[in-house]
Amino acid sequence: MSSADRLPRLLALVPYLMSHPGAQVPEVAKLFGLTEKQLVDDLQLVWMCGLPGHTPGDLIDVSWDGGEILIDNAETIARPLRLGVDEASALLVALRMLAELPEFGEGDVLARVIAKLERAAGEGAAAVSSQVAFELDAAPDATATVREALRARRRVSLRYYVPGRDEVTPREVDPTRLVMVDGRHYLEGWCYRADGMRLFRLDRVMEVEVLGVPADPPAEAEPIDVTGGVFRPSPTDELVVLELTPTGRWVAEYYPCEEVTELGEGRLRVALRARDQGWIVRLALRLGDSGRVVSPGSLAERVREVAAQALSHYESVG
């Protein structure tokens, strides 16, 4: 069983045991869908967890002698999660965006979750998140239409949103396949506007129509390798240098970098190619104090201006 599965189970197990002192190993194992051996392995791991210092008074105290589980000194991990205004606001914005997607539109589960989170987070987070406007104008039937074109081997006509240029462009594409990368669906095909193979995110397709023309990509049309992700930097893209703190090191793992330099104390300097500056600005804002743009200087100044503008809006709401 992976650590990704184990961590959330442990986070649920400790509060349960705190509220059910004396619970029996067999019944707890059954409740969490574990064997008794797996549960004991979890308890042995819990026994080594606690606050920094790692003295007996800092660690969680747990015993299961005779099959009865007793746990103590675990108040910190048993506390409910408390979100700040910025964290709750970001979560509310994300949930409202999900609620606008066609696959979530018919249910009321998200609406109930949003309402509960707004009540729990207070008026501040609800007010901030309600000021964020977003529109999802993607064609709701894009996936079905593209599948139809693939079955019929027909060319499609698209109106496709390009975020880097903030424009919608007309395209005629001979579709070759649908692929999923990083949790998103893409149409792969020969684009006659670009005169090459391209990937089109389906949630950026504003309109799609199956044409009465057979799909006939040229012989040089080869499948795009997506094993390393969708982003493929070009030597002509702008070279951007970032400095990252230990909490921002994920950038070097998530994006293809031309240079990665250790600066000591867990800090990194990375150089990567950016097709448009807007993407780097969004990345820098996402990093916050975990990273900064070093060069080019004009881009670093643009990040500061956008951050100051966003902060002024946030303060006016607060």
Fold blueprint:
Layout: H1 3-19, E1 23-24, H2 25-31, H3 36-46, E2 61-63, E3 68-72, H4 75-78, H5 85-100, H6 109-121, H7 123-130, H8 142-152, E4 154-162, E5 167-181, E6 184-191, E7 196-201, E8 205-214, E9 238-244, H9 250-254, E10 259-264, E11 267-274, H10 277-287, E12 291-295, H11 297-317
Antiparallel strand pairs: 1-3, 2-3, 4-5, 4-8, 5-6, 6-7, 9-11, 9-12, 10-11
Helix pairs in contact: 2-3, 5-6, 5-7, 10-11
- Gyration radius, rounded: 25 Å
- Gap between N and C termini: 45 Å
Q: Main sheet, how many strands, which sense, barrel?
A: 5 strands, antiparallel
Strand order of the largest sheet: 7-6-5-4-8
Helix content: 25-40%
Percentage beta strand: 25-35%
What structural category do the secondary elements indicate?
alpha+beta
Q: In words, what does this structure look like?
A:
The chain is built from 11 helices and 12 strands. It folds into 4 domains: 3-78, Orthogonal Bundle (Arc Repressor Mutant, subunit A), CATH 1.10.10; 85-130; 142-214, SH3 type barrels; 238-317, no CATH class. The strands form 3 sheets. A 5-stranded antiparallel sheet has the order 7-6-5-4-8, covered by helices on one side. Strands 10-11-9-12 form a 4-stranded antiparallel sheet, covered by helices on one side. It has a 3-stranded antiparallel sheet with strand order 1-3-2. The radius of gyration is 25 Å and the shape is extended. The protein has 318 residues and is α+β, with helices and mostly antiparallel strands. The model has no long low-confidence stretch (mean pLDDT 78).
